Amino acid sequence: MRRLIFVLFTFALPLHAATTPASVAALVTHADAAPQLAAALRDATPLVRATAAESLPAVRETLAKESDATAAREEIRALALLGTDDDVATAVANSAKWPASMDDALALAVARRGGVKAINAYASSLHSTRMKARSEFFMRALWGHVDLVPYAGSRLLGIKDAGGWLGLLGAVRDSDLTMEPGMMLAAVRSSNEQIRLASIRYLVNGDGEDPSKIRDPLRAGLLEPRTETASDLEDFGRELLRRMLGAERKDDERWLKWLRIRRSCNTSPTPSTRTIKDAARFNRPSAAFRCSSRRPSRFRRNGSRLPRSIFRTSSRPD
Questions:
Q1: Which of 10, 67, 120, 165 makes a 20 to 30 Å CA pair with 303?
Q2: Has residue 156 got a pLDDT over 70?
Q3: Residues near 181 by Cβ (< 8 Å), separated by ≥ 6?
């Protein structure tokens, strides 16, 4: 009898004890737990509110008044993972009230939606946030959905999102995939200069050792005569691509001058141990373009250099 009383007392105690993260987590299995979860969302303890956020749609109201970063992070993630598109927009608006790292937490939660849902949420709400983990976002969003890479690219080019395009290129490269030639042609013809530059660097660094990988219609598009003038860096990159493809060299005095006085940029993707093909997690986002004092003959990928012959000119400076 004493043992029975002890057992009953032990299991009945949580019903009357103060609310704790553990007791809130246990409510998930109760069909009539909504009132208790609603109360937990308004609890004075941040960790209790954070635990309740994982299971209650009413988090939207609480998030608008949240004052603790830890609880807000979990409430934002809950909306991003479980909510509607409107909930994602609400999460974006609330995330903007917190430090920039909150936007990354939100983005990676949205990425777990996967596939079209994640891509559409990025295009409609996330692309304008302060998020930095864009390559990681696409790594997670496209895991198991490699066929959606062209769709993701078309959405990014359509909204002219240079940061997202650079992130997608990084995810594709780190997964040993290849962007469709037609997609890359649209990118190098984009009205957005940063998209054009990112695409040219992607091609120079990725296919410099084997230009035969550049197929039509991209190959034909890169070899077409151009009359418009762009930045020195872009035009120099386009000339490198032409020479890689076997076209006649065209020297320009402004490039030679630029080579003497400007710092060149080198793009190297951050190493990853995971790919879209075989994992749901990407350790670090692709690195942004890094500038160095080296000449463009140092453009490289994975430690290998492009042939020096494509940099030769009739009056190359020492």
A1: 165
A2: yes
A3: 214, 215, 216, 217, 218, 219
Express each pLDDT in 163-216 by its tens digit. Answer: 999 999 999 999 888 899 999 999 999 999 999 999 999 998 886 678 888 999
- Report how far apart the first and last C-alpha atoms of the chain are (Å, whole number): 97
Angle, alpha carbons 51-55-56 (nearest 5°)? 105
> Rounded to an integer, what distance in angstroms lies between the CA atom of residue 269 and that of residue 123?
23
Q: Domain residue spans in the chain?
A: 34-132, 134-318
Q: Do 68 and 59 contact (CB within 8 A), yes or no?
A: no
pLDDT digits (tens, 9 = 90+) for 246-289: 998 888 887 777 777 655 444 433 333 333 333 222 222 222 22
C-alpha 168/C-alpha 158 separation (Å) is 14
For 79-87, which contacts have Cβ atoms below 8 Å and span 24 or more sequence positions? 80/106, 80/109, 80/110, 80/113, 81/109, 81/110, 81/112, 81/113, 82/57, 83/57, 85/120, 85/121, 85/124, 85/125, 87/60
How distant is the alpha carbon of residue 59 from its chain centre? 26
Which range has highest mean pLDDT (78-87, 117-126, 305-314)? 117-126
- Taking only the tens place, the pLDDT of each residue in 92-145 is 999 999 999 999 999 999 999 999 999 999 999 999 999 999 999 999 999 999
- Write out 244-279 in H/E/C secondary structure: HCCCCCCCCHHHHHHHHHCCCEECCCCCCCCCCCCC
- CA distances from residue 157 to 71, 124, 161, 269, 287 in whole angstroms, order as listed: 35, 13, 6, 21, 20
H or E element: which one contains 307? none
Please answer whether residues 245 and 222 qualify as being in contact, where contact means their C-beta atoms are separated by less than 8 angstroms: yes
Predicted local confidence at residue 198, as pLDDT: 94
DSSP H helical ranges for 147-192: 149-158, 162-174, 181-188
